[in-house]
Amino acid sequence: MNIKQIRLDSFGPYENWTFKSGPNGVQLVYGANESGKTSLLEGMRSLLFGGKHKKYGYVSGSLELDKEGTAYHLGRQNKNLDFYSPGEPSIKDEPNQLWWHGLDKKTYNRIFGLTLEDLQGVDILNEVDVRARFFGAEGGEQLGGVVKSIETNANDLLVASASGKRRINVLIDRLQENKARLSALGEHETQYVELQQALKASEDTEAEIQNQIKEWQDYREGVEMVLRAWDTYRRSEEARRRMQQFTSPDTLDRDAFLSIDEGLREARQNMQLWLDKEEALKPENFDPNSPFTTYGQDIEDLIQQGAKWEQLRRECEEGEAYIAKVKEQLDFSRGLQSSWRKDESVPTDVNWFEGERLSKRLRTAKDQLLYWQSQAPSLQKEPKISEDSSSVDTGENSPVNTWAQQELQAVMIDIADLESRLGEHGSIRMAAMPIWLQRIGGIGAVVGVLMSLAGLIALESVLYSIGGIILLILGLGLFWYGWRLRHVDDSDVARLMRELERLQQRKSYLETQLDVPLPVASDIPNLETAAIEQRYNDEGKQLQANYEKALAEWQAWIPEGAAKSLDEDDFFSMKHEYDQYSEQLRTIEGYEKRLDEHKESLRLIEDQAVTLWYNLGVEAPVSPTELKRIYNQYKNFQQQMIRWEQKESQRKSYRMEYDNWHRKEKELLLEQKALLEKSGLSGANEYRQKLIDEDQFKQWETIYKQSQVQLDLLTPDGENKDLFYRRLREGNKENWTDELAHADQELNARKDAMANLYEKRGQIVEAMRALGSDQEQREAIQQRQELESELESALEDWATQVVIAHCMERAQQSYEEESQPKMLELASQYIKRLTNGAYTFDMWGLQDGLALLNERGERLPIHHWSSGLADQVYLALRLALAKVFSYQVDALPIILDDILVRFDEERQKSALELLAELGEHQQIWLFTCQQQVYYMGQAIAGIDTHILQRA
Hints:
Blueprint: E1 2-11, E2 14-20, E3 26-30, H1 37-49, E4 60-67, E5 70-77, E6 80-84, H2 95-98, H3 105-111, E7 113-115, H4 128-135, H5 143-157, H6 167-183, H7 190-243, H8 254-281, H9 292-304, H10 306-336, H11 352-374, H12 399-425, H13 433-458, H14 462-515, H15 527-557, H16 571-616, H17 624-646, H18 648-679, H19 684-714, H20 721-730, H21 733-770, H22 775-834, E8 839-841, E9 851-854, E10 859-861, H23 867-888, E11 894-897, H24 905-918, E12 924-928, H25 931-938, E13 943-947
Helix pairs in contact: 5-22, 6-22, 7-19, 7-20, 7-21, 8-18, 9-16, 9-17, 10-16, 11-15, 12-14, 13-14, 21-22, 22-23, 24-25
């Protein structure tokens, strides 16, 4: 059960005061003297158990509790109880009756609520109330009270004194007086005598049945004793078996090894102490062996290149962006070229000299052919043409028409291609947006100039001047961008329009040539005309052959990627576009070359930085910013190195102390090695394992001895111990359980016979009463019967009380013998923790008085204890008592008030660590007026610290 919140509406110095506990198991509350710690402790006790405080009266307040994950509200207003779980009906029972089996406030204070004055030693274990609560928790909550009540009832029935006035004593006296009175009354009838004989026989039968009952009860007790001793016997056999697994502790020099081990521990502790002192001389976050010592010059060299590094990174980024933009523009301008196809790459090497020669040759052949064609109509003006003369072929298959048709198709394909380009990049580029951009840019530039002049002359404001300059720069940039869009787009589109016009003229000319008829042969034969026509046709064929040869050579020369419909007139435009594209490409290549040089320089710097990063163990990405951070760390390291070197003499002194202890450690290691060689063991760990085996042997030997002592106590009085052990070895638990059930059946049968006998005796007594000779005799007989009956009942009650008292005493003694060693063993562990291993509890020397055992096994009696050591022993006993009690009933909160006053700092820390460990399973409230205890608690996990404030 944990206390989550305390509220005191009215109790002593507290008015409308609330306190919330932390999540940990230990709540350490610091408060100066007269801050109200003791009043708060008394308020918590009163809220838990109620009642009226002798100084502050009744409490008004509440506790918020948590029990096994369920929240409860426990409130008290004077005598009124307000106890419930949220969302559930109110609980009428007190918490101690509902949860803690009737535990009262006094016993709680003796076990769980401790102040410095409450530490009383081991006398608490002998208090009746504590024994009843602690040792009677498993056998019945009022075990101790029952024992006291039985003893009181037995003393009220009979006292061993001749002049005693207890009930049985008085009945015996009155019965003797009645017998004397009856003997004086005279004779009795024969039947009355027979009835008396029958009554005497019933008494004999009763005695016989009582003996049988006694025998079966003794048998049952023996069987029950065997069953009770069964687990103890098994435990002793297990201990004996485990003892056989370990070597008897008589072969190793424990003291020598532990002395060397302790010396090594001390040497290493001192080595660590002087090493820590040496480390304390170091500035914070400083390591004299840091990589900065080795690679400081590399950092200096690299920081000198920091500005160059940043510039190269910036230029590389800007260069890559610029080259990407130029390539994008180059691809765009490539799409506007009329002589070169966009879907193919431009060749790197073209023989322009040969192309120019072929274009001139083609132009000459073409001009000659055209001139020949232009002379054809003059033949029609001749008046006569000889019929026999052959005419020029005017059909569709003539060489001239074939060439003209092919040329016309190529020109139409080029016209369609140019029209599609104009559709994509045509007059849309001539939209009004560039004009508006130029206008807005110009207006912005003018406004910027006016603002700059106004800021410099009229307003004398630097901000106005700067704003005007910025606006001027933006306006000029916008004006230039609009102008560039207009003129670049205008030149590209104009060039395409000119090329389209030229191709359309070419198309018209070819269509005209196809429509012109050639000379038709006359029906009148003319020899001269025939000769002229023959020469004309021969010349035409020769010119056509020359043109076709020149055209074939021209088309064979046209570079890959150029438009196939280009003729000799397109040579210079094609060369111009090629030269322009090559110039732009060379510019880009120059940029890329310079960019590669920058990248190589940047790579060299970054490789140097990567190497430095690796040597320094830096995991952050390589960057100039990170270099600046490392350089700042290096400068800080240099300053700290200067301070470190200034403390060199003190550090050497500490190092000398460290070396001395280090030499001592080596000497002890040599001694340990000699001891190990002497014992024939390979290492210290094996030696320690042997010592652990010896300790385990001793532990099992202790358990075996304890079990033997308990078996001796459980051996029935008057029974041979060996015989009792044989019964345990040869029997088994099931058979003994069956025997116990059989004994109970036999006892029940004898009790039924006794009940029948009592009924028969009652009938005899009634008959004897009816046979009384006179009224006085009848009254005397009746009185005797009443006295005998009352005396018999009183004797049965007394015998029952005596038997029960004996059984209860034996049961309590048996439970104490089994449970007390567990509590004392737990207390011994706590003492060892509180004294840092200096002492343990002497559990097997209690008959010689309370004492401790030091590390060498020497006994330290109680009168040699210091006050602080006594407080530590008594605190360990109380904590062990509370811990064992929590196993049986419930883990109640432990409240401790200034119990560490007489502890030194080291043992105060050990006590806080022990309380923090216990707090994992049981809530502990520790009140203290010592600030060092408060600060120690803050440094220990598992402890919540609070400063007590009433306001």
